[in-house]
Structures are given as structure tokens and as C-alpha cells.
Specification:
Length: about 170
Amino acid sequence: MRQMTEKFLKDAFAGESQAHMKYLAFADKAKKEGKPNVAKLFEAIAYAEKVHATNHLKELGEIKSTVENLKAAFAGETFEIDEMYPAYKATAELQHEKGALRSMNYALEAEIMHQKAYLETAKVVDAGKDIDIKSVHVCEICGCTTENEAPDKCPICGAGKDKFKNF
């Protein structure tokens, strides 16, 4: 693939991914404001943006075997833990942006959990097996991710068990 086309596909993937997430957040807000049909529209278009992003990612050759995908996910989490969030946090601290700093701290702590989960999962999948979990629970406040059971109190942000979404 030529460099410019590859760059444009990567840029398009980033834009479509951001639109997907933004529209899901807009859908949640519409639901809270009692507008379920507006939420439905946002969710449907968010799904379309996900389709676009997935097509771009496939064309870039970045969807591989599960083992390779787990290794790529681990590398992404490692970058966020070791480089991205420390730099972003330093800037937020320097500029006294408390809300941004809280958001980044939540993300960083959750990314550490994600990195560990990907590493452990890759070992199991590399051995030709699937992981043995009943469910995954994610804190809606900070992104803390736990397997099998939600904690009574989130270890990152202190939210109650009722703030965990079950997958």
C-alpha cells in the first residue's frame, strides 16, 4: 500500500473511531434526557461509524489472529501506561487542570488492569484455549475492569457495585 493511502486510511480509522464513541456518548445523554428515539438514531449511526472504522482497519491489515491481536492490545496498553498518560498527566498537573487529571488517572489505573488481562489471556490463547470467565464488569465512572464479579467498591474511584456494567 502506498504511504499516502495508508496514512489516509489510518486517519479515517481514527476519525470514524472517535465518531463512534462520541455518538454513543450522545446516545447516553439523549436517554438520560428522556429522548429514546434520538438515542436510537445516535446508536445506529455510531454502529455505522464502527463499520467504517472496522473496514479501514481490515484494509490496513491490522486485524490478525487472536494471539496477535492480544499482543497488539497489550502493546497499546503498555504505550498508554508508560508514555501517553504520564506525559498527559504531567501537562494537566502543570496547567492545574484537576478534572483532566482525574480523568487521566482513572484511565491510567484501568489501563494497568487491561494490560494484565491481555497478558494473562494471551498465555491461555497461545496454548490453544479460551479463557474461563463467567462475566466481565466495567465501572461506568472510571473504566476499572474486573472478571467474574464486580467489587462492592471500585478500587480506582470508590464507586459502588451498582456502577459496574456487566458483560
